[in-house]
Amino acid sequence: MPEQTNWKQETCRLRARLLEDLKNAEEISHWVGHRIEREAGIWESDCNELEAEMWRRFAFLETNQDCTTEDRSLPRKRIPAAFFRRFHKLYRTLTGPFSRTAIDQRRQFNLDQQNRFNRESIPFVLATVLSLQKTKDRLNRLEEMLYKLQKEQEEISREARRTTKIENDKPNR
Amino acid sequence: MEEGKRPNSANVSEEAAVPAEVEGRFSLDSSPSDDALGRRLLQMMKTPAAGDSAATFSTAWEEFLQAKGRPAALRMLSRLEVASGFRRPSLGLYDNALHFIGGAQKYGCTIAHALQDDFDITLVANAEVTMDRLESWYDLDLARCRLKVIHLPYFEDRPDFNGVYDAGMVDLKKPNPYQAISRDSAAYDVFVNNCMLEMVYPLAAVSELVCHFPEREISRFFHVPRYSHIIYNSRYTAEWIRKRWLLEPHLHFYPPVDMDAPREPAGKEKIILSVSRFELSGNKQQLEMIKAFQRLCRQTPEATAGWRLVLAGGSTAENPYLERIRDFLAVSPARVELKVDLPADELRDLFGRARIFWHFSGFNQRDPARIEHFGMTTVEAMQNACTPVVFRGGGQTEIVEDGVSGFMFSTAAEMEKKTLALIREPELAARLGGAALARGRDFRRAVFENKVRAHFRHIRRWLMFQDSWPDRTEPLG
């Protein structure tokens, strides 16, 4: 079956070519033709980077903890800001039924604020958890090391006692 | 998908919060044209019409290569070769801990055992291990499988390397050390990643990820969505795959357990048995068991007279936790026996003699990874009519039917009460032991192998253009 043999050789040749390309490719992504890994992020951070991330996010969370806060009007000369707020409240109560759009806009504003807050909260919590995990791992390693050292110390003490005993038991010359 | 739902969203910038890999889930049913082209090329190869030649074939294939890229082209070639009968389909099964004895490795080797008549199987390891050793560890015939070792210098060159190729040690800012495995996966038609190593990017025509528990979160090298199917060992694991990886797993195969030593419940002795590895972390809680047993003995001396607690399990050479147990027993001796690294036949005998089986893994734990993902030793006990008293959590709840084939507990008081009931009422222990024996048979190797064969034979048919893509979301059978 010469024809059959040709097909086999042909598929073998093409396959070998592809595998050779893969072997020679510096990165798998080059062979695949697109990026297969993501950029390093919080998961890939070390302890210091996590700490920096936590403080950065925390600053934002603290500043924006009240998502309903609008830009407050500053007191003008002689007329306190409270007057403007009360006037605004009265105006909204009176025109409420006719100003649905304004309310929707305000609601949207609040939701956007909340979303921004949420987006910052998740990395903050994650960075905290990861940081704790890393600390816990380090503590476990230290505990294990301490346990080994204690064992070694016990061994050395036992050996020292044994040596002392041998020395003491030796007849005086 | 909303960003807030993704725990991994913090990995990337706010503009591109959703990892592309998670979005780009593997899907073959979206390209039926590939199948159509494949069938046409196959037809050309089997019964060439006038004008069909190697050149025509090459042209069609080159066009396909340009349009779909190298991975798809390699997949097409693999299928054509298998469908034409030029060679048997090949399967590579990778496990980074194959050189250690373990439940997950038994799972993988049993897959290999079940499929060796259908595929040319290569077991891929990272460290030297012999086929004889694998066969004796798991009591399997793997005569038709090959073994291949791919060393990973990233781990081996570390001064603290202890034989474990642990993905937790990978520096995620450096190149992926598992690239060698990814490259090797291209050589097989089917690649099975048996160690849930999410960092291996699969390049085979079909790739299956066996997940015993999603230990790590989504990271830079997270490639699980590129696998054709995720196989999971328990519903507990599936739940965590959804939570942690935000992916829907496909196939549910309970681990194979064959510890049948048909000894009648009448031949049982007054033994409470625990079989668990003495883990460095103390995760299996043998020390807690000793304390609980001592409490039982103190509180009910007449009922517990003659009873012993036997703690069996494997251990590493230097094990501070095991030392701590020994130290504890030296200070406060009890009727407790430690059986470390027991040979299989002695363990089998012990299962046959013990009346009650304790499993505390997960008790007082918050970390989901520390809760038993399945609990093979519980099944082993049940297959020996040894009544299980296990922690109500993780995979254990899928094995033991509380009050029918054993007992489950959530608190120490509940555990003591239920154990005492079994001690005081031998007929209750015998009844539950009998039910446990029947339940234990549901997890036998034959059941596992039948499911594995059904799934992989479907893949084989798909490779040969004889069937549609096995797009599973429901367990087989």
Description:
The complex is a heterodimer of chains A (173) and B (477). Chain A folds into two domains: 1-37; 38-169. In chain A, α3 (47-63) runs antiparallel to α5. The longest helix of chain A has 70 residues, at 100-169. Helix content of chain A is 75%, strand content 0%. Chain A has 173 residues and is an all-alpha fold. Chain A has helices at residues 2-24, 28-32, 47-63, 81-95, 100-169. Chain B has 477 residues and is of the alpha/beta class. Chain B has two domains: 16-36 and 63-256 and 452-463, 3-Layer(aba) Sandwich (Rossmann fold); 265-443, Glycogen Phosphorylase B (Rossmann fold). Helix content of chain B is 39%, strand content 13%. Chain B has helices at 20-23, 32-46, 54-68, 70-83, 103-115, 131-138, 153-156, 179-185, 235-245, 286-299, 320-331, 344-353, 376-382, 396-399, 412-424, 426-440, 445-463; strands at 90-94, 120-125, 145-149, 190-193, 206-211, 229-232, 251-252, 271-275, 308-313, 336-340, 356-359, 387-391, 407-409. A seven-stranded parallel β-sheet of chain B has the order 3-2-1-4-5-6-7, with helices on both faces. Chain B is elongated. Chains A and B meet through α1, α2 and α5 of A and α3, α4 and α8 of B.
If you compute it from the alpha carbons, what radius of gyration of chain A comes out, rounded to the nearest whole angstrom?
Answer: 36 Å
Number of domains of chain A: 2
Q: Supply the CATH class of the largest domain in chain B.
A: Alpha Beta
How many angstroms separate the termini of chain A? 99 Å
